[in-house]
């Protein structure tokens, strides 16, 4: 998959995630239990497959990515087979509430609104928005952006974050998507760009060792979701996450798919 294609998929996944849960859904009539899953011999796990590197379809046309590896580890902890069910941003919570999946490992950002409809585990992943530029560029504070040009995807989270942070004499150049902003950085059209750590990982693949994050502007954590009121299942998932954070397994998955250690704001969160 070429770089532009990867960026397009990331952008599409972000838009899908942002549009999710515009409508509140009624809680499920029953809670999921650990024993029920073990008796079934499998755990049905809902996962996005269009949000790389968290969720993709690999060359064998099977779900893969960060979320898939976490899902398989969870199934192993339960002692059952993992049945990964592809979901979309809009239908992932309805799938959980209707019993079509048992849990969601679907890049679901933890928000108060979503917590009205599902129960969230402690964070297992996170997305941060920051400013990225050439490794030899010294940028540690807002004043260092004075006179600089900064590329962002128009009307994105990073557009808002950079606009609020940068001094008035910085030039913010807005592009149609992350892929265009990244190409502007790589070709020297802008000095720096604002983007998520997910896209930053793709830059590292395209141009190893040339760029790094200068400033982190915001963070959003993602949780594993279970049906509302599934207290036992939630406790199991949280114990599982404490285990894989403690033994380094989750960090290995993060290194594999994002090319960097698990962020502290995820690793230390309970």
TrEMBL record:
Domain Solute-binding protein family 3/N-terminal: 42-261
Coiled-coil regions listed: none
Annotated ranges, domain Ionotropic glutamate receptor C-terminal: 42-260
Gene Ontology cellular component list: membrane
Keywords tagged on the record: Signal
InterPro entries in the cross-refs: Iontro_rcpt_C, Solute-binding_3/MltF_N, TAT_signal
Signal sequence extent: 1-31
Gene3D superfamilies: Periplasmic binding protein-like II
Name by which UniProt lists this protein: ABC transporter substrate-binding protein
SMART domains in the cross-refs: PBPb, PBPe
A molecular function GO annotation: ligand-gated monoatomic ion channel activity
